[in-house]
Structures are given as C-alpha cells and as structure tokens.
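Journal club side-thread
Mid-discussion, someone asked how the predicted structure for our own chain would compare to the paper's figures. Pasting it here so we can look after the session.
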Amino acid sequence: MASKIGVHEIPALQMAAIRQFIGGSCFLIFFHLYKKLPLPTARQFGWIILLALLMFVGANGLSTWSLKYIPTGLSALIGALYPLSVVLIEVLFYKKNNATPLTFLGMFLGIVGVGFVFYENAFHAQPKGFVFGLALSVTAMLCWSFATVFIGKSKMKLNAYYSAGMQMFVGSFLLYAIAGVAKQTVAFSSISSKAWWAIAYLVIAGSIIAFIAFIYSLKVLPPAISSLYAYINPLVAMVVAYFVIDEKLTWNILWGALITLAGVYLVNYSIKRNDKKVIEKNEEV
C-alpha cells in the first residue's frame, strides 16, 4: 500500500531504486564499518548480480510498477502464487517431479481464486494499462520464483543479511539506469513529503525490518511457520488498502483470496509431505 501511495507521484522504477539504495546502504554500512566483513569474491559477486536482477529489479521493481495499474490486493495475491510457479520451474527445468495429486489440486485452486479476484476487478472501470499491470505483476512473481530456486542451488556461503544488502545496493543502480533510459524519473525536489514518508516506511519496515525478520525466521523456525507471511500478506494488503486508500473490497474478492491462499497452502503442504516421505525412505534404505 505504501508503494501504491508513492507511485502516484514518483515513477515506479525510480521509487524502487531510491528505496533499495537507502536500504542496501544501511546494510553495507553496518557490515563493512561495524562487522568488518570482506568484499564478496568474484564468484559470489556474480551470484549477487544475478539475484539483484531477479529479486530487486525484476520482482520488486516490476511489482512496484504494476501498482500504478492494478489494485494493491490483486498485486499481493499474484505475488503469493510464487510457491506454485517454483514447483513448475523445478519440474520443467530441473526435472524434479515431486508433485502429487494434492499439489495439482492446490495449483487449480490457486488459479481459480485469482480468477475470482480478477473477474471482480476486470469488469469495473479500471485505469488505462490494467492488462499491462497484470503482466508486470506476473513477471515479478516469476522473477521471485526463479530467484528462490537459484538461492537454493547457489551455495554462496555468504552472510545472508550482507548478501541481501549487497543485492539491494547493486539492484538500485540497475533500477535507476533502466529508469533513466526509459525516462521514468522526476527531480528529487518535486517529490512531496507524503511520498518521502512512503519511501521511508518502505525502507525501514520493508527493506530492513522485514528482510531481517524473514531471514531470521528461516534460521530459527520450522518452514511451515516461517512461510505463514505468504498467506497473511495479501489479506493485510487488501484490508488496509480498503480503509486507507479506499480500494474496493467485496466478498467475492475475499473469497477469491481465501481460495487462492488455500491452494498455495496445499501446494506447500503436499511438497513438504512428499519430501519428508522421500527422506524417510532413504533413511530406511
């Protein structure tokens, strides 16, 4: 919702670049000046550039841009579909077929739920570029999915927080370069205090606190618990946007969101259950 407020007056790619530059700088200052960590190796830096392109240029930049055209809740809900696309990516590109009938049921429910939300939004007056915004949001979700797969296979052996900060920092320059080429920039003096407050919130709550909390939760909590944010985030976005910026919220949208999140849960549950069975079978052998 804060991104939605910001893109009303700042081009989305420029706003994402400002956010990631400030957030990434905070991480790098802490790890270089206080922790005295060395610079990444050439191989590590290669992975950092790839992940910066996927996570902070593709996923964050494009999802921020999509908010200029589509509702906050729909964007958040499409983002929540990433576990479904991760399964498809691993099946199509890595021939990892650990899907079960329950997995495909979850995928079906996920698509049906988004269809409910899309139907509710598509047949009302929408800003110009609604379909373009959908395409941006789906592309952003796919970028996040590929990044998720690559992170699992990279074995980068770099402090996770430091790596995230480096990716933000690198991603900010890439975003600003793209924004400049596309002529999607405005003078800093023309940015209102309201937009700067939105950016400040995104930096503090999103780029710093949320990333630290998420990475920490992955280290100390079971995956089933640490992944709960994916189910809660779209509902929070829908409800808060309804009260604060007067976005439409109907029972059809809520039911669609709940069906989608139920599908995502089934996909996660089926994959984890199947992986557990495989591990137990290997241990018996």
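Post-session note: Residues 2-284 form one domain.
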